[in-house]
Write a structure and sequence with these properties.
The structure holds 2 protein chains of 2 kinds. Chain A is α+β, with helices and mostly antiparallel strands. Chain A folds into 4 domains: 64 residues, Phenylalanyl-tRNA Synthetase, Chain B, domain 1 (2-Layer Sandwich); 193 residues, Phenylalanyl-trna Synthetase, Chain B, domain 3 (Phenylalanyl-tRNA Synthetase, Chain B, domain 3, 3-Layer(bba) Sandwich); 71 residues, Phenylalanyl-tRNA Synthetase, Chain B, domain 1 (2-Layer Sandwich), CATH 3.30.56.10; 183 residues, Bira Bifunctional Protein, Domain 2 (BirA Bifunctional Protein, domain 2, 2-Layer Sandwich). Chain A contains 15 helices and 28 strands. In chain A, the strands form 6 sheets. In chain A, strands 4, 5, 6, 7, 10, 11, 12, 13, 14 and 15 form a 10-stranded mixed β-sheet that branches. Chain A has a 7-stranded mixed β-sheet with strand order 19-23-24-28-27-26-25, with helices on both faces. In chain A, helix 8 packs across helix 10. Chain A starts with a strand and ends in a 15-residue tail after the last strand. The relative contact order of chain A is 0.09. Chain B folds into 3 domains: 102 residues, Orthogonal Bundle (Arc Repressor Mutant, subunit A), CATH 1.10.10.10; 94 residues, Arc Repressor Mutant, subunit A, CATH 1.10.10; 190 residues, BirA Bifunctional Protein, domain 2, CATH 3.30.930.10. In chain B, the strands form 5 sheets. In chain B, strands 10-14-15-19-18-17-16 form a 7-stranded mixed β-sheet, sandwiched between helices. Chain B has a 3-stranded parallel β-sheet with strand order 1-8-9. Classes of the chains: A alpha+beta, B alpha+beta. Chains A and B meet through helix 7, helix 8, helix 10, helix 11 and strand 19 of A and helix 12, strand 10, strand 11, strand 12 and strand 14 of B. Strand 21 of chain A pairs antiparallel with strand 12 of chain B, so a sheet runs across the interface.
C-alpha cells in the first residue's frame, strides 16, 4: 500500500554491485511494485507486511541475502544507555518504547528518506497514528537524559511545536495547527493528552507533533526515537523495525533505553530479540507442492536472512530477526522459500480431478429470462447498486427506516444500497428520449431489511420499462405475461394495487405459480414530469428470488 | 436495342402493365396521340408519355412530338355563354318595346355593351337603325352557332365551323395557344412484345408469387455496396455477457456457485480473514460503513476462535497481539471483497463442506472511491476456493493458468504479493496487447484463519476484479462505459465474441 520514493543515487550507494535493471527486477521479486522510474528516483510500492523494506538500507539488507552476498540473520550489538523513561498512567495511549541509534549521519538525502520512513510507518503499521506513532529526536539536542511520559491537561502544556516560532499551549496546537486538527482527537480524553518530557521540557505530544527543540535536520548525527501506541505489540514491532533499520547506518549498534512503568514494571526497549520457529519440511512440501530437500530449504531461508539449523527428522530450526514482523507462523517461512526459489520456477499443476458444477438455480432462470427479453427487443442495462435514498423514497415509496443507508457515502446520489430498480430505469429513460420506442430491462440484486445476521436480505429483481408515444398497462402486461408463460410458469393472481409511482386503476400486483411476484403499471405523469420525461412510460418490477419448480427444494438465499 | 425478334425484351413492371392494357387495342404503324392512349388505358396522360418514352428507348414504339394550335374562350366569351350574347339581349329589349325603340332610350336601358350589341345585330341583319330609331327585322333570332362552337372549343380547343371560328376570332372572343402533342406509333404489337418480355422489378412481392407473374420477372441488380439502414436489436448487456462467460468457465472447471448479500459484518469481511482491526483499510476512508442498519450478529463460538487467532494466535501462530474488539467486528459495511463470501462458505453458511470442493462466487464489492474514468465505488469480483488435503500452491497456480487461458490470455506471470489472509500469496499479471495488467490476487488461506474455522485441510483461494479485465478485453479507456446509461451506446457496441472462444489474443 505505501508507495516509497527512493533516490537512484542512494540505491547505488547501498547496493553498488547491482545494476538498476537488476535491482528493479529483484524489487519485484520481493513484492515491490514498481510505480515509476526516472533518472533521479525510483517509486516502488511495498505492502504493509514488510515495513523493514521502507528504506534503502532495509532493501539492501534483504537483497544482499538473495544475491548471496550476506547470508543468515544480521546481528545487532545492543548497549545500555544512560537514558531512562518514567511512564505514568496514560489511558488513551499507554505504551511507549524509546531507543538510541548513534552515528546515523542524517544528510540531505537520508533526511528525505527518514521522514518518508516515519510517514509510511504511521500509515501502515501505525493505522494512521491511531495505533502507533513515532517521534524522532536529535540526541544532541535532548535537554535531559530523563524522560517522562505523562497524561496532562492540555492547558498546562506549553511548547514550541516543530518548525514553528512561537510557544503555544497544547490546546492551541490541537485547535489551530494542521497536525493538531488531523491527529489531535486520537489520544485526547477530557482535556487530557499524552506528553513526553525530557527533564521539564516538552519534546513530543504523541501522536500529534514533536517540539522544535529536538528537531532532526540534515547534519543530525545521533537519534533518539520514541514510539507510542495503544498496543504493546505494535509499539515493539515498529521500534524493532526502526531500530534495526537505522542501525544499518550506525554500525549495527542499538542503544537500549529502560522504560519504567508506574507500578513497578519495567522493560528495556527496543526488543530486537529474534524469534525461534520450527519448520517441518513436510509442511513446506504440503503447501507448495514441490519435492524439496531439507538442506535446500535451509539454504534458501539463509538467503532470505534467517539463521537456520537442520534438526533430525526433516525439521528446521529457524531464527527470525525481530524486524521481520510479518513472520507469525511457519507458513510465512514457506513463502520465503517460494520467493527464494522464484515464483517463475514453480511449475503450475493443472487441475486433474473432475468435479460436478452446481450453478445457482436462479442463475439459470435469469439466463433464459434475459434471452426472452432480448427477443422482445428490450435492451439490457446495468446500473450501480449504490443509488439515491431520495429517488427510492419518491419512486419506490420506501421509508427511510426501511432503506440500507451508507454512513460515509461518496456523494448524495449514491447514499443508499438499492432496494428497488424502477427509479434507476426511469433515470435511464429520461436520458434516452431520442430513442423512441424505448424498451429496457435490468435484472440484479437489491437488498431489503430483514431479521438476518446482516440485518438485510438479497432479493433478485427484474425491472422492465417501455417508453413510447403510447405505452400503457396492457403493453407492459403483455410482455410480463409472455415472459412468465415462456418460462413455463403461469399467472396465479393479478389484482388492482396502489403504488406511489403508478397510476391508480392502471396498476396491478401479480403472482405466479413458481413464486414470482411483482408490480406493473403506468407511471404517473407527475413522476414523469419530475424526471423530465415527455413520453408515457409503463413499467414492471418482478421479484424472482423465491422462484422454484413445484416439488423441488428451494435454494435459500439470505 | 431490343428489336431483334429472338431476344428477350426487358420491361419494367409499369411498362409491362401498360402494354398489357393496350393488348389488342392498337395497330402497328398507326399514329396515336398520348391522350388517346390515356383514354384507351384509363391511365394519366403524363404517365403514358413517360412510359412511352421508355418504350421508345427500347424500340417498341416511335415517338413524335407535334405542335397543335388550339383556342380557348376569353373571360368575355365565357360570360356570353352564361348570360347570352349582347345582340340577343338587344333583340329581347326591342321585343319588349314592340319592335322599335329610340336609340338613346335603348342605350340608356342597355348599359355598357350597347355598341357591341347594335354592331353585331346590325351586321347579322337582325336590326336596322334609321332616323334615331332601332327597328327589329327578324323574329327571335339566336346565337346558337356561336354557343356550340364555344362549347366545342372549351372541350377540345378546336372548332369545326370555320365561319364561326373566324367570326369569334374577329370579335376577340378566343385566345390562341400552342400545345405539344405526343404521337405514338407502335413498331411492334403489344401482344408480341409481351410474349418476349421479361419484367424487371425492385422487389419480389407476394402478388408476384401468387399471380405467377414471377415467371416473367427479373430482379433489378442492386448497388450492393450502398449503405443499408441501421438495424439495432434488443440486446443483452455486453459486460453482463462477459460476466456470464466467467460463470461458464467456472462451471467448466466444476465449481459450485454461491452468493451472499453485499451487506457484511466487518467480521466476515476482515476478522475471519485474519486482517487485524487496526488495518488501515478498516476505516471510513476505504470501507463503506452503514448508518442503517449498522450492527450485525455473529455466532458466539466462532467469535471466540477468531478473537484468539488475532490476540494470541492459533495453529502455532503468534497472532497479532492486540486487544480484539467484538463491537468493531459487528459493524456493518458493504463488503470490500467477495472473499467475505468465501469465508462464509468455509464457515458452512451454504451447507457443511467436505473436501474436495470447488466453490466460487461473483458479486459486487464496494470501496470508497469517487466515480471517475478509472474508479468506481462499486465493481465486480470473482472469488474462488478449492479445498482439499492435497491442494497446493502449485495447484492454485495451475488452476489460475487454466482460467486465464480459457479467457484467451496466453501470457501471464505470478508475482509474490501480500494479503493478510493468504500465505504464500501471489498476484497475477497478464499481458493484454502491450500492457501488463494485474488481474488477480491469490494464495493459500492462512493456518490461523483455517484453524478458527475448524478446517484441517488446505484451501487455495483467489479473487479477481472483473471490470479492469473487461475494459482491457473490450478496449475501453473509461470504466464508466461499463455502466453506460446511453442506450444507443449499449445497442451499438459490438460484442467481442472471440473472447468467448478463448482465442482473442
Amino acid at each position: 500500500m505505501p508507495v516509497l520514493k527512493f533516490k537512484v543515487e542512494r540505491l547505488k550507494e547501498v547496493l553498488p554491485e547491482l545494476s538498476l535493471e537488476k535491482l528493479l527486477e529483484l524489487l519485484q521479486r520481493i513484492k515491490g511494485e514498481i510505480e515509476e522510474v526516472s533518472d533521479e528516483y525510483v517509486e516502488v510500492e511495498f505492502e504493509v507486511d514488510r515495513p523493514d523494506l521502507y528504506t534503502c538500507e532495509g532493501i539492501a539488507r534483504y537483497l544482499k541475502g538473495l544475491i548471496g552476498k550476506e547470508l543468515g540473520s544480521p546481528k545487532y550489538e545492543l548497549y545500555t544507555t544512560p537514558y531512562r523513561v518514567y511512564v505514568e498512567n496514560v489511558p488513551t495511549r499507554p505504551y511507549i518504547a524509546v531507543f538510541v541509534v548513534e552515528n546515523v549521519g542524517v544528510d540531505d538525502n537520508f533526511f528525505e528518506e527518514l521522514i518518508q520512513f516515519q510517514e509510511k510507518l504511521h500509515i501502515s503499521l501505525g493505522g494512521r497514528r491511531r495505533r502507533v506513532a513515532i517521534g524522532l529526536h536529535d540526541l544532541d539536542k535532548l535537554p535531559s537524559k530523563t524522560l517522562y511520559y505523562r497524561f496532562e491537561n492540555i492547558d498546562n502544556v506549553k511548547f514550541k511545536p516543530l518548525y514553528m516560532d512561537t510557544v503555544m499551549t497544547l490546546r492551541d496546537v490541537i485547535a489551530n495547527t494542521k497536525q493538531g486538527r488531523e491527529y489531535g482527537v486520537i489520544s485526547l480524553q477530557n482535556g487530557m493528552h499524552p506528553v513526553l518530557y525530557a527533564g521539564d521540557e516538552v519534546i513530543s505530544v504523541p501522536p500529534v507533533i514533536n517540539a522544535d527543540i529536538t528537531r532532526v535536520e540534515p547534519g543530525t548525527k545521533h537519534l533518539l526515537v520514541d514510539v507510542t501506541g495503544t498496543d504493546l505489540r505494535g509499539v515493539l514491532d515498529v521500534s524493532a523495525v526502526l531500530a534495526t533499520t537505522l542501525a544499518e547506518r550506525g554500525g549495527r549498534r542499538i542503544g537500549i533505553v529502560r522504560v519504567d512503568y508506574e507500578g513497578g514494571e519495567s522493560i528495556e526497549t527496543p526488543d530486537v530479540k529474534p524469534r525461534e520457529m520450527h519448520l517441518e519440511i513436510s509442511y513446506v512440501r504440503r503447501i507448495l507442492g514441490i519435492d524439496i530437500g531439507v538442506e535446500e530449504a535451509a539454504n534458501l531461508l539463509r538467503s532470505t536472512r534467517f539463521d537456520v539449523e537442520v534438526e533430525e527428522g526433516g525439521r528446521l530450526h529457524v531464527v527470525v530477526p525481530r524486524y521481520r514482523i510479518d513472520v507469525l507462523h511457519p507458513v510465512d517461512l514457506v513463502e520465503e522459500i517460494a520467493i527464494a526459489i522464484g515464483y517463475d520456477k514453480l511449475k503450475p499443476r493443472r487441475p486433474e480431478k473432475l468435479m460436478k458444477p452446481t450453478p445457482l438455480p436462479i442463475h439459470a432462470w435469469e439466463k433464459f429470462a434475459r434471452l426472452i427479453l432480448a427477443g422482445y427487443g428490450f435492451t439490457e442495462v446495468m446500473s450501480f447498486t449504490l443509488t439515491s435514498c431520495r429517488e427510492q423514497e419518491r419512486v419506490c415509496g420506501l421509508e427511510r427506516g426501511k432503506m440500507v443507508i451508507l454512513d460515509n457515502p461518496v456523494s448524495v446520489e449514491l447514499d443508499c444500497l438499492r432496494s428497488c430498480i424502477l427509479h434507476q430505469l426511469l433515470e435511464v429513460a429520461a436520458k434516452n428520449q431520442d430513442t423512441i420506442p424505448l424498451k429496457l430491462f435490468e435484472l440484479g440484486e437489491v437488498v431489503i431489511m430483514s431479521n438476518t445476521d446482516t440485518g438485510v436480505e438479497t432479493r433478485n429483481r427484474l425491472a422492465l420499462l417501455i417508453m413510447d408515444y403510447k405505452a400503457g398497462y396492457e403493453d407492459i402486461q403483455s410482455y410480463v405475461y409472455g415472459l412468465i408463460r415462456l418460462m413455463g410458469d403461469s399467472i396465479l393472481a393479478v389484482k388492482q394495487a396502489d403504488h406511489p409511482a403508478l397510476i391508480k386503476g392502471r396498476t396491478a400486483i401479480i403472482e405466479t405459480k413458481y413464486g414470482v411476484t411483482g408490480v406493473m403499471g403506468e407511471v404517473r405523469p407527475e413522476i414523469l414530469e419530475e424526471y423530465g420525461i415527455t413520453y408515457p412510460v409503463a413499467v414492471a418490477e418482478l421479484d424472482y428470488t423465491k422462484v422454484v419448480l413445484r416439488g423441488s427444494p428451494t435454494v435459500s438465499r439470505p | 436495342m431490343c428489336t431483334s425478334t429472338s431476344s428477350k425484351i426487358v420491361l419494367s413492371e409499369s411498362e409491362y402493365k401498360l402494354l398489357e392494357k393496350l393488348k389488342g387495342k392498337v395497330e402497328v404503324g398507326k399514329r396515336y396521340r398520348s391522350d388517346e392512349l390515356a383514354q384507351l388505358t384509363s391511365m394519366e396522360k403524363s404517365s403514358i408519355e413517360a412510359l412511352t418514352r421508355l418504350l421508345a428507348d427500347k424500340g417498341i414504339v416511335k415517338i413524335e412530338t407535334v405542335e397543335e394550335e388550339l383556342y380557348e374562350p376569353t373571360e368575355e366569351a365565357i360570360a356570353y355563354l352564361r348570360e347570352g350574347f349582347p345582340e340577343e339581349k338587344l333583340v329581347k329589349l326591342l321585343e319588349e318595346f314592340g319592335g322599335e325603340v329610340d336609340v338613346e332610350e335603348a342605350r340608356k336601358r342597355f348599359g355598357p355593351l350597347f355598341n357591341i350589341a347594335i354592331a353585331n345585330a346590325a351586321r347579322k341583319g337582325w336590326v336596322v337603325v334609321r332616323g334615331g330609331t332601332i327597328r327589329l327585322l327578324k323574329s327571335s333570332p339566336s346565337c346558337e352557332k356561336e354557343r356550340k362552337a364555344l362549347e366545342e372549343i372549351l372541350e377540345t380547343g378546336k372548332c369545326s365551323d370555320r365561319h364561326v371560328l373566324r367570326d369569334l376570332l374577329r370579335r376577340k372572343l378566343l385566345r390562341k395557344r400552342v400545345q405539344k402533342q405526343t404521337i405514338v406509333v407502335f413498331a411492334v404489337k403489344p401482344e408480341d412484345v409481351l410474349e418476349k418480355a421479361v419484367v424487371e422489378i425492385g422487389a419480389l412481392t407476394r402478388d408476384h408469387l401468387v399471380s405467377g407473374l414471377w415467371r416473367k420477372l427479373r430482379l433489378r441488380a442492386y448497388n450492393v455496396a450502398a449503405e443499408p439502414p441501421e438495424r439495432l436489436p434488443g440486446k443483452l448487456h455486453f459486460f453482463k455477457e462477459f460476466i456470464e462467460y466467467l460463470h461458464d468457465i467456472m462451471r467448466e472447471l466444476g465449481f459450485r456457485e454461491v452468493a451472499y448479500t453485499p451487506v457484511e459484518l466487518e467480521f466476515w469481511n476482515y476478522d475471519v480473514l485474519f486482517q487485524p482491526q487496526y488495518h488501515p483499510a478498516r476505516t471510513p476512508t476505504d470501507t463503506f460503513y452503514l448508518k442503517n442498519p449498522s450492527k450485525g450478529r455473529v455466532e458466539r463460538e466462532l467469535v471466540e476462535k477468531v478473537k484468539v487467532a488475532h490476540e494470541r494466535g492459533l495453529a502455532g501462530s503468534i497472532g497479532w497481539a492486540y486487544p480484539w474488539k467484538l463491537e468493531k467486528a459487528l459493524m456493518l459495511i458493504l463488503r470490500s471483497h467477495t472473499t467475505a463470501v468465501s469465508a462464509r462458505a468455509l464457515a458452512g453458511c451454504f451447507g457443511k463442506l467436505k473436501p474436495p470442493f470447488r466453490i466460487y462466487t461473483i458479486g459486487r464489492v464496494y470501496r470508497v472511491e469517487k466515480v471517475d474514468p478509472r474508479h468506481l465505488p462499486e465493481f465486480h469480483q470473482l472469488d474462488g476456493i478449492v479445498g482439499d488435503y492435497d491442494v497446493t500452491f502449485r495447484d492454485l497456480m495451475g488452476l489460475l493458468a487454466e482460467i486465464l487461458e480459457r479467457l484467451g490470455i496466453k501470457e501471464y506471470k505470478f508475482k509474490p504479493a501480500y494479503f493478510p489472509f493468504t500465505e504464500p500469496s501471489t498476484e497475477v499479471m497478464v499481458r493484454l496487447g502491450d500492457q501488463w495488467l494485474e488481474v488477480l490476487g491469490a494464495g493459500m488461506f492462512r493456518p490461523e484463519m483455517l484453524a478458527a474455522l475448524g478446517i484441517d485441510y488446505n484451501v487455495a483461494a483467489w479473487g479477481m476484479g472483473i471490470e479492469r479485465l473487461a475494459m482491457a478485453l473490450y478496449g475501453l479507456r473509461d470504466i464508466r462505459e461499463l455502466y453506460s446509461r446511453d442506450v444507443k451506446y449499449l445497442r451499438k457496441i459490438a460484442y467481442r465474441w472471440y473472447i468467448h472462444a478463448s482465442t482473442q489474443i
